[in-house]
Design goal:
With 146 residues, this protein is of the alpha+beta class. The protein has one domain: Nucleic acid-binding proteins (OB fold (Dihydrolipoamide Acetyltransferase, E2P), Beta Barrel), CATH 2.40.50.140. 27% of the residues lie in helices and 32% in strands. The protein has a five-stranded mixed beta barrel. The protein is globular, with a radius of gyration of 19 Å. The termini are far apart.
Length: 146
């Protein structure tokens, strides 16, 4: 009887401790059906695990600059395996990026794809393929404009 009660307490404690880890890896906060393309210059870059993040400075048609926040993206080691290295997108580098907005804050994005100036695309987490990224770049794709 004491063993059963102790086992129950241990299981409850483990579930309580592990719940934040499951919540952390949920994609429920992101509208992953939207792929919004941005073009600009990398302002900040955190190329590390568990998730990379960056800010991009985009110039609007009226000349005003806008900071785009990619607060989360694929793990850095995954992007390296895909061929993207941090020195390829260091601050000051012009790139295109495709992201999905947060459902509760549409001004913050999940970074799905990075497209270099030569058209090479690095996609993770369901981002468009290299071919699709190139087509979006040629046709205007799902670009966000204001």
């Amino acid at each position: 009887m004491k063993l059963a009660a102790l086992s129950g307490l241990v299981c409850a404690a483990l579930l309580t401790v592990s719940a934040p880890a499951f919540a952390h890896h949920s994609f429920a906060v992101w509208d992953l059906q939207q792929n919004i393309e941005f073009e600009g210059v990398v302002d900040t870059l955190n190329f590390r695990n568990p998730h990379m993040s960056m800010t991009l400075i985009q110039t609007k048609p009226n000349g005003e600059q806008e900071k785009i926040e990619f607060t989360e993206g694929a793990p850095a080691n995954m992007m390296i395996r895909l061929g993207l290295k941090p020195d390829m997108i260091k601050p000051g580098t012009k790139i295109k990026a495709i992201g999905s907005p947060r459902k509760d804050n549409p001004n913050v994005y999940f970074l799905k794809t990075v497209i270099l100036e030569d058209g090479t695309a690095f996609s993770a987490m369901g981002g468009p393929s290299r071919r699709q990224a190139s087509e979006n770049a040629e046709t205007g794709g799902d670009q966000k404009s204001e």
